């Protein structure tokens, strides 16, 4: 999940995605313990998604406006 996608969600959707991500992380850890995981990098990706979601929720809680730049970096 990209940062721009996270910023475009409302609080209810963010909380729902956060619950889903925690559930997925639990399942991946359970699979890892049973040696059933085929994609170990997914665990790290889910952890980063959780961090992104929690960061955006905290920013909104503190009324911090996050600036998302829509410009592409120049090659200079």
Architecture per CATH nomenclature, i.e. the level-2 architecture: Orthogonal Bundle
Write the element-wise H/E pattern from the N-terminal end onward. HHH
- By CATH reckoning, the class would read Mainly Alpha
In terms of structural class, how would the helical and strand content be classed?
mainly alpha
Task: Characterize the overall form.
Answer: elongated
Number of DSSP E strands: 0
Instruction: Report mean pLDDT, rounded to a whole number.
Output: 86
Sheet bearing the most strands, described? none
Q: What is the helix fraction of residues, given as a range?
A: 55-70%
Taking the alpha carbons of the first and last residues, their distance comes to: 28 Å
CATH topology: Helix Hairpins
Number of helices: 3
Oligomer state of the chains in this structure: single chain
Q: Which runs of at least 5 residues are low in confidence (pLDDT < 50)?
A: none
Overview features:
76 residues; mainly alpha; Helix Hairpins; 66% helix; elongated
Walkthrough of the structure:
- With about 80 residues, this protein is mainly alpha-helical.
- It has one domain (about 5-60): Helix Hairpins (Orthogonal Bundle), CATH 1.10.287.310.
- Helix content is about 65%, strand content about 0%.
- The protein has three helices and no strands.
- It has helices at about 5-10, 10-35, 40-60.
- The longest helix has 23 residues, at about 10-35.
- The model has no long low-confidence stretch (mean pLDDT about 85).
């Amino acid at each position: 999940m990209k940062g721009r996608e996270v910023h475009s969600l409302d609080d209810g959707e963010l909380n729902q995605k956060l619950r889903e991500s925690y559930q997925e992380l639990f399942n991946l850890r359970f699979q890892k313990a049973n040696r059933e995981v085929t994609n170990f990098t997914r665990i790290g990706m889910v952890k980063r998604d959780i961090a992104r979601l929690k960061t955006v929720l905290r920013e909104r809680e503190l009324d911090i406006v996050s600036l998302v730049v829509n410009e592409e970096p120049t090659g200079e």
